[in-house]
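User: Please fill in residues for this 310-position structure.
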């Protein structure tokens, strides 16, 4: 479904499909829909495709009910569940992703501290996953998704390196936070320093109180980090200061079962300043709907769609 909603025509059609299901649809909304439908022959096909996507999600939903608890996950019910969902969609991977067999993962809303073999520790945030590869030469961690707070034990003979999204962060006897959400990695240093290498850019040294972000295309310049905000997730809080709504929704998505899908790129650019409780995501969504020009529609227990109001 993710690839489909990246198609602007399908996204627009899905937006209309959702709005037409809303009991509060106005007459002007209906006229606008009819004008949109008549504007291009491709819109009718896109609308039918949007309806098919909707039905596909409905087929997958019963399997979400069965498989949503990580404690009950086994290789057997993984295979049975994925076969059951295959007829409808790649829904299983919407829940667990291709990293289901990593060394450590957390459930939605869970935080867990992991003690590593070298006496280092990692506190994993909600819906996060990592793998370990410790050898006699180096200590390597792969953060597949989510967030981790690293407290690294010194070892002059073996560097401690965290890989995420094609980039690497090397600890220099330090404590630091790495967040990998919405295809962007953010590295913030709490103590001492790290080096960050990504996107074919020169290696950067990041000192205490500074942060840097990168994706596969670029590595940003270091900027000051509000360390209380960086670590707020460890106290069940998410702090946003003039952050695009797209990123806010991606963060909230990690703390709620199912998917939050943004249907309007312009809406995603709206700046948000707020503090949300990670245990009250639905309340956060209500606040967003009440204070911003957006429409939030809970299509099912597992699918929430966000679009422009009106």
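Assistant: Residues filled in for all 310 positions:
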């Amino acid at each position: 479904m993710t690839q489909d909603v990246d198609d602007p025509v399908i996204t627009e059609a899905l937006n209309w499909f959702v709005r037409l299901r809303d009991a509060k649809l106005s007459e002007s909304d209906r006229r606008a829909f009819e004008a949109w439908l008549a504007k291009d022959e491709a819109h009718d096909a896109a609308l039918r495709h949007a309806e098919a996507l909707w039905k596909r999600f409905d087929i997958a939903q019963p399997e979400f009910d069965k498989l949503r608890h990580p404690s009950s996950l086994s290789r057997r019910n993984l295979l049975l569940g994925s076969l059951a969902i295959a007829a409808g969609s790649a829904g299983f991977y919407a829940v667990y992703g291709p990293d289901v067999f990593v060394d450590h993962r957390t459930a939605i809303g869970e935080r867990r501290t992991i003690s590593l073999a070298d006496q280092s520790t990692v506190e994993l945030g909600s819906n996060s996953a990592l793998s370990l590869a410790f050898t006699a030469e180096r200590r390597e961690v792969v953060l597949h998704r989510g967030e981790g707070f690293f407290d690294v034990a010194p070892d002059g003979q073996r560097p401690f390196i965290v890989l995420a999204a094609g980039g690497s962060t090397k600890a220099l006897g330090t404590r630091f936070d790495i967040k990998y959400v919405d295809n962007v990695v953010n590295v913030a240093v709490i103590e001492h320093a790290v080096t960050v290498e990504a996107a074919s850019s020169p290696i950067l040294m990041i000192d205490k109180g500074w942060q840097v972000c990168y994706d596969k295309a670029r590595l940003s310049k270091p900027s000051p980090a509000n360390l209380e905000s960086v670590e707020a997730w460890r106290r069940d809080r998410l702090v946003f200061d003039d952050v695009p709504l797209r990123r806010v929704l991606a963060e909230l998505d990690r703390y709620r079962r199912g998917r939050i899908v943004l249907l309007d790129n312009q809406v995603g650019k709206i700046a948000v300043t707020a503090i949300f409780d990670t245990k009250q995501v639905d309340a956060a969504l209500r606040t967003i709907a009440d204070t911003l020009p957006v429409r939030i529609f809970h299509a099912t227990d597992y699918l929430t769609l966000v679009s422009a109001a009106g």
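For context: The first helix runs from residue 2 to 5.
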